[in-house]
């Protein structure tokens, strides 16, 4: 298996950055588009466990739209072959001292790259 084929990494990076822009601007339509429409798709958040595409859509529809801006860093995108990838990043929000972590599993579908699993967590406040 080829890992990190340059053109596949470039495609995945574009998809990941599109997700990031949609997340911080609360573009729910793009966020819904970028999650794989399947009852098997999952997202574990800081305060919620979402066990299907429908649950993820419902969460996004009711999510507050203010204070979503963040700085991302230590982003690592790894592709395995041409159709599977992981994206991991750390983030900080302007109104928080906590470090957040986000990991995603992506697959290539006929419609393009889609998230099939995501996890977001926050580290404890520094002492």
Overview of the molecule:
The chain starts with 5 loop residues before the first helix and ends in a 5-residue tail after the last strand. The protein has helices at 6-24, 28-34, 53-62, and strands at residues 42-44, 49-50, 70-80, 84-93, 100-109, 112-122. The longest helix has 19 residues, at 6-24. It is of the alpha+beta class. It contains 3 helices and 6 strands. 28% of the residues lie in helices and 37% in strands. Helix 1 (6-24) packs antiparallel against helix 2 (28-34). A 6-stranded mixed β-sheet has the order 2-1-6-5-4-3. The protein is globular and about 45 Å long.
CA-to-CA gap between the ends? 44 Å
Number of E-type strands: 6
User: Which series of helices and strands comes N to C?
Assistant: HHEEHEEEE
Low-confidence stretches: none
**Number of helical regions:** 3
Q: Strands of the biggest beta sheet: in what spatial order? A: 2-1-6-5-4-3
> What is Rg?
14 Å
Helix percentage: 25-40%
Outline the biggest β-sheet. Answer: 6 strands, mixed
Shape: globular
The structure class reads alpha+beta
Integer average pLDDT: 94
Strand content: 35-45%
């Amino acid at each position: 298996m080829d890992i990190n084929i340059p053109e596949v990494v470039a495609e995945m990076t574009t998809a990941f950055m599109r997700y990031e822009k949609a997340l911080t601007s609360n573009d729910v339509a793009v966020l819904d588009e970028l999650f794989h429409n399947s009852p098997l798709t999952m997202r574990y958040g800081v305060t919620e466990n979402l066990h299907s595409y429908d649950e993820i859509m419902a969460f996004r529809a009711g999510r507050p739209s203010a204070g979503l801006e963040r700085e991302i860093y230590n982003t690592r995108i790894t592709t395995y072959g041409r159709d599977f990838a992981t994206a991991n990043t750390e983030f900080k929000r302007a109104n928080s001292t906590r470090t957040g972590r986000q990991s995603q599993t992506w697959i290539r579908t006929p419609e393009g790259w889609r998230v099939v699993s995501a996890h977001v967590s926050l580290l404890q406040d520094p002492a």
